[in-house]
Amino acid sequence: MAGPRALRRILGAGLLVGxxxxxxxxxxxxxxxxxxxxxxxxxGDPGHEERAVWARDxxxxxxxEVALLLGCPRARGRVSVYFVDGIARMREVAQxxxxxxxxGLCSAARxxxxxxxxxADRPPFRSVGSVVRHEWVHLLLGQASEGSARILPLxxxxxxxxxxxxxxxxxxxxRLDLAVVAGTLLPLSELEHAFxxxxxxxDLAYQQGRSFVDGLIHQAGWEGLRSLLRRLRASxxxxxxxxxxxxxxxxxxxxxxxxxxxxxxxxxxxxxDQARPWFHLVLRDVGWSLIVLAALGAAVAFYFVRRRRKAExxxxxxx
Length: 319
Fold this sequence. Notes:
- By secondary structure, the chain is α/β, with parallel strands linked by helices.
- The chain has helices spanning 4-28, 49-70, 87-94, 117-120, 128-144, 154-165, 176-182, 199-235, 244-256, 260-274, 277-284, 286-315; strands at 38-44, 77-84, 104-107, 112-116.
- A 4-stranded mixed beta sheet has the order 1-2-4-3.
- Helix 2 packs across helix 5 (128-144) and helix 8 (199-235) crosses helix 10 (260-274).
- 30% of the residues are buried.
- The model is unreliable at 1-34 (pLDDT under 50).
């Protein structure tokens, strides 16, 4: 028969086991698990081993900086970063038909970032670091959505990535100011899910996205952008949105009191204001511009008529 001291030991052990079982039962019953930390794996193709060493040191800092800017959690789980040369190798690693102009690619669902070094390192347009930062925006926004359907229009997400990355994704020769003047801006609705495969049009699409985001940050600040992204993540389409444009429209209305259409109109007006002065004059008031041109034409015509009349008078015979 066990003595009092032995009974106390048995009872204490039973209480510990019971507490452990209850704790395990509570976690299994639905308590959220602690998010996994970033497990970074870097691959450098032959000739890019130094890039891999650089990335192992720098990418965790990029992860922290981008997460702070966006106001979202840092990357978690296994993320593989590849530094490759050539479009064929990029497509092989990505297992996708990547456009020939792409300097980088991210698949948040697969935890994959691919950087094409042969065109990524092209000052003054971009650097390998700016491409990594750009793709990290897609990674963090994708992970933050936790597998939900896209809730940001592609043009808006790319605009954020361009702003944070600090580089130019495509150097296709497009000019945003000339597109404003010529009336050839790409409709944002056509850039909701995909970008053009043509480099020049893709270049313009990126510039439009960044310009819109720049304008939003100019008006609302980075905190305004972070608040907008938090609202989008928190809702995750509840109630359901009809499209990413619808999700953004709703979030902008709730955050700023203005719908996406009003923001788009303001953005285009801002583009006109930023254009060259004579572009601004022509676009802001076409009627007044026509009057000015007509007056100039009349003045020139009067000058030549008067000059010819004077010549005719001088040619008359003198008495």
